[in-house]
Specification:
The protein is mainly beta. It is built from one helix and eight strands; from the N terminus they run E-E-E-E-H-E-E-E-E.
Length: 138
């Protein structure tokens, strides 16, 4: 994967329909996707040379997404706000250009609104995975 424009990294929320339609979260200026896997330490007195040993495939995996930007799209804003107040897992799609897409259930863990007296209103969102997240390469 070569250099990419940050604005091409997209965050989309599903409408809950069948088939699911996705609405791009507009106005995001910054986005971060973190994939994590906790390890399970199985080191004991018999571990060779006292080196730590990890149990492959045993840890919990998670994904976290954060973004911040300005209000531009009332429909996406309403869907995000409703997802926060419902605290139900909604399907989200994360598009990483020339790499692939991540898709799965996420909870809106934090939703912040801010504004300066002489500036635009902004928001920040944090998502936490709430189930299996799939990856499809491009």
């Amino acid at each position: 994967m070569g250099a990419q424009k940050g604005r091409d990294l997209l965050l989309k929320i599903g409408d809950g329909g069948s088939p699911e339609r996705f609405e791009t979260v507009a106005g995001l200026r910054a986005r971060t996707i973190s994939l994590n896997a906790r390890s399970v330490d199985v080191t004991d007195g018999d571990s060779v040379g006292g080196w730590r040993e990890l149990l492959a495939g045993a840890g919990a995996k998670s994904a976290a997404v954060s973004g911040a930007g300005v209000f531009r799209d009332a429909a996406a804003d309403a869907m995000i706000r409703q997802a926060f107040f419902d605290q139900a897992g909604r399907t989200w799609r994360l598009v990483i250009p020339d790499f692939g897409t991540l898709e799965g259930p996420f909870l809106v863990a934090a939703l912040e609104y801010a504004g300066q007296h002489e500036g635009e209103a902004t928001y920040a969102i944090s998502l936490a995975s709430a189930g299996a997240v799939s990856f499809a390469g491009i």
